[in-house]
Design goal:
138 residues; globular; 5-stranded parallel beta sheet; alpha/beta; Rossmann fold; 5 helices; single chain; 7 strands; two-stranded antiparallel sheet
Amino acid sequence: MATFENPPDAVIREILAQPRRIAVVGCSPDPRRDSHRITRLLMDKGHVVCPVNPAADTILGMTCYPSLRAVPKPVEMVDIFRRAEAAGAVVDEAIAVGASIVWMQLGVIDAPAARRAQAAGLTVVMDRCPAIEYRQLF
């Protein structure tokens, strides 16, 4: 089967440049964690963020949802901060809820899940970090 390739920089730039409704799956209430810092960065860049973590009620003053399916409004992008072995289930849920973009953070690599998302019409970014992309592309 073909290997996965991330979209070109111009597509990644467009993803990050447009304000989007983003679900951050695996968002931590701990400000020392990368998921917390990236959620804050996305908010600071103008995105509407929905934290998803079944173990938290609120994160950064926002209601935290136990799953993607529990988020009451549609999300455009799903940012995955879960171990690679859990990413496939999150990708399948992102497809099911009608997201148009899946972003797997640094170290989150699941090429079969990425290909499933692409086959369902989603744009997929894998093993990349928005903070690094903002620095490099803007």
